[in-house]
Amino acid sequence: MNEIKAPKGTRDIFAPEIYKWQYLEGAIRAYYGKFLYQEIRTPIFEHSELFSRGIGDETEVVQKEMYTFKDKADRSLTLRPENTAAVVRAAIENKLFEAMAPLRFYYIGPMFRYDKPQKGRYRQFHQFGVEVFADDSPQVDAEVIFSAVDFLKKLGIDQIQLDLNSVGCPQCRPAYLQTLRQAARAEEARLCPDCRRKIDGNPLRIFDCKQPGCAEASRSFPLIGDHLCAECRDHFAAVRETLSWMNVPFRLEPRLVRGLDYYTKTAFEVTSGQLGAQNALLGGGRYNSLIHELGGPDMAGIGFAAGRERIILPLEHLEAPGPKVLFVAYGDTQWLAHAVQLAEVLREEGYPVYIDYQGRNLKKQFKKADRIAAAFTLVLGDDEIKSGSVSIKNMASQEQVKISLKDLNEWLKKNY
Ligand SMILES: [Zn+2]
Ligand SMILES: [Zn+2]
């Protein structure tokens, strides 16, 4: 029979790598808890319409990368390619705008895009992200950006670079887009077929194209930064000022537009020189029209999404050890009951405990303890049972002590 393999672009994650993932998830919870973010878990699949409306019909993601399928009742469903639209949907549907305050969410979970797999990029990939609703103050933008950069730094990632731009708003962007379209039409011959199509749709996305002709041509295009309305300009200035209060260095990147249609005002990306070509760690921005467009109140939003596979890459040397195991061994099967009871007591105390039930001799149990990298092996043999004690071997140093069972807890507190 043929061996069944995981689908292309997906992978299994297990020990010891899984410890890094658990460490990262714990770090996200602890860090964002300090800013009063609450976790939200939305379904893995949604109605396809959510993404075509929320992300934008013309985007690369919606046109080429979504896993869309019909269910048995002929509904069009899509595996989520990102999570902002779903968090907004959840907030609208569950009336969280009325029920919760502050409206700050983080999520951790898998996303799906039919993309070309490469290092650090998968078809099932994992993101964590945050969303803040109902606050349009530029200081919130700065706080969200600060938290992203600070969190990555605290994980031990260095050579962090923050790129910042403002992509305007419904007041100033349409006029700018007209100017941009004119400039793009004048250079149409140099643009790739994809970018030619973008001229009438969202010409901003030409700035994202990596084709040399497009990159070359777009260098002479007008920039949104020169066409912002007064409100956008003030907002952007205040974001930059707040970032300077927070000692967050940034680089103004006037061609940073982000791939999705819903961004307004602040847009940002964080990269690390540690990663080489695929260096983006996270990206985000403000999306003040999205909530209303998806049927919710006219309410501001800002957030970012970070690729966990990317964040894990520079953490190769992170020490995220597995559990420190106590291995309970018994000298003879007649002491198995004692061993089982000791294991239970130790687990009650919070220790990870392993016991081998195969009734093998002590030598083989010690071998097993080595194989599972136990920290200590606790032996109950004839002597120990008779004297109400236990022998403890430190598996790393090979040191051995024999102590009274009633002192075990004290001993573990000191030596574990
Ligand atoms: Zn504006
Ligand atoms: Zn192009």
Task: Briefly summarize what is shown.
The chain is an alpha+beta fold. Helices cover 36% and strands 21% of the residues. Strands 1-5-6-11-10-9-7-8 form an eight-stranded mixed beta sheet. A five-stranded mixed beta sheet has the order 13-12-14-15-16, sandwiched between helices. A three-stranded antiparallel beta sheet has the order 2-4-3.
Protein model, in words:
This protein has 416 residues and is α+β, with helices and mostly antiparallel strands. It folds into 2 domains: 244 residues, 2-Layer Sandwich (BirA Bifunctional Protein, domain 2), CATH 3.30.930; 90 residues, Rossmann fold (3-Layer(aba) Sandwich). The protein has 16 helices and 16 strands. The strands form 3 sheets. It has an 8-stranded mixed beta sheet. Strands 13-12-14-15-16 form a 5-stranded mixed beta sheet, with helices on both faces. Strands 2-4-3 form a 3-stranded antiparallel beta sheet. A hairpin with a 7-residue loop joins β9 and β10. α6 packs parallel to α10. The longest helix is centred in the first third of the chain and has 17 residues. The relative contact order is 0.12. The mean pLDDT is 93. Bound molecules: zinc ion (2 copies). The site of one zinc ion has 8 residues, from α10. One zinc ion binds next to α10.
Write a concise keyword list for the protein shown above.
single chain; 416 residues; alpha+beta; BirA Bifunctional Protein, domain 2; Rossmann fold; eight-stranded mixed sheet; five-stranded mixed sheet; 16 helices; binds zinc ion
Write the layout of secondary structure elements.
Blueprint: H1 17-33, E1 38-39, E2 45-47, H2 48-54, H3 60-65, E3 67-70, E4 76-79, H4 84-93, H5 96-99, E5 104-112, E6 124-133, H6 138-154, E7 160-166, H7 173-186, H8 193-198, H9 212-218, H10 230-245, E8 251-252, E9 264-272, E10 280-286, H11 290-293, E11 301-307, H12 308-312, E12 326-330, H13 336-348, E13 353-355, H14 362-371, E14 376-380, H15 382-387, E15 389-394, E16 400-404, H16 408-415
The chain binds zinc ion (2 copies).
